[in-house]
């Protein structure tokens, strides 16, 4: 792997990602992601499932892993279906959302300012969601220190186009990662 902490491999529209979280001479802790767009009559795409259902992994997922051929190291080890069955895994649905400008304005008038994923959620692959959420918090704190809380509408107005652009760019990157021209989120 070399000095990288994240490696990717793509097979058709499937993106495999391995992240090294911690490394010691005796232990390596990794997390991994299997990502692909939703398909017609897709047993893995369950947009209406309850949050606790994230731990219910359909058998079709393991069959898809078994169908992956010619994976290179470390992907053939990490994405081995038998090994993955023993891991604690979560079934995430990657989505992007952007609050409507009118709704953001309505809430600000009531003293509620949405930031981070509450107003602009982005997929975990290809997106900058967590970074942008933290930036929102830092920028909001700076804005309050400099201007007080009476100008939250000004802050929301100044950030909205950036939020919109971020969501659009995140969707574009995700679609490109999966070899598509349009993301299927």
Unreliable spans = none
Radius of gyration computed on alpha carbons: 20 Å
The helical percent reads: 25-40%
Q: What oligomeric state is this?
A: single chain
Question: What class do helices, strands and sheet pairing give?
Answer: alpha+beta
- Spatial sequence of strands, sheet with the most strands: 1-2-3
What is the number of E strands? Answer: 3
The average pLDDT score comes to: 87
Taken from the alpha-carbon principal axes, the silhouette is: elongated
Q: Work out the helix count.
A: 6
How much of the polypeptide forms β-strand, as a percent range?
5-15%
Order of helices and strands: EEEHHHHHH
**Main β-sheet: number of strands, strand sense, barrel status?**
3 strands, antiparallel
Measure the end-to-end span: 30 Å
Structure described in brief:
This protein has 185 residues and is α+β, with helices and mostly antiparallel strands.
Note the topology.
Elements: E1 6-11, E2 14-24, E3 27-35, H1 59-67, H2 75-78, H3 81-86, H4 101-109, H5 129-147, H6 152-177
Helix pairs in contact: 4-6, 5-6
Features:
single chain; 185 residues; alpha+beta; 3-stranded antiparallel sheet; 6 helices; 3 strands; 14% strand
Q: How would you describe what is shown here?
A:
The chain has about 180 residues and is an alpha+beta fold. Helices cover about 40% and strands about 15% of the residues. The protein is built from six helices and three strands. A three-stranded antiparallel sheet has the order 1-2-3, with no helix packed on it. Helix 4 (about 100-110) runs antiparallel to helix 6 and helix 5 (about 130-145) runs antiparallel to helix 6 (about 150-175). The longest helix is centred in the C-terminal third of the chain and has 26 residues, at about 150-175. The radius of gyration is 20 Å and the shape is elongated.
């Amino acid at each position: 792997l070399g000095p990288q902490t994240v490696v990717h491999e793509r097979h058709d529209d499937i993106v495999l990602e391995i992240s090294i979280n911690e490394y010691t001479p005796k232990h390596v802790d990794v997390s991994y992601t299997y990502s692909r767009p939703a398909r017609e009559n897709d047993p893995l795409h369950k947009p209406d499932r309850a949050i606790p259902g994230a731990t219910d992994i359909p058998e079709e997922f393991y069959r898809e892993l078994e169908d992956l051929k010619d994976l290179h190291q470390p992907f053939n080890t990490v994405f081995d279906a038998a090994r993955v069955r023993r891991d604690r895994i979560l079934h995430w649905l990657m989505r992007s959302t952007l609050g409507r400008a009118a709704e953001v304005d309505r809430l600000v008038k009531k003293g509620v300012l949405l930031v981070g994923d509450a107003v602009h959620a982005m997929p975990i692959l290809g997106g900058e969601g967590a970074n942008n959420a933290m930036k929102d918090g830092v920028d909001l704190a700076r804005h309050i220190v400099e201007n007080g809380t009476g100008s939250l509408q000004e802050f929301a107005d100044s950030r909205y186009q950036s939020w919109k652009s971020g969501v659009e760019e995140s969707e574009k990157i995700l679609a490109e990662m999966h070899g598509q021209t349009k993301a299927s989120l």
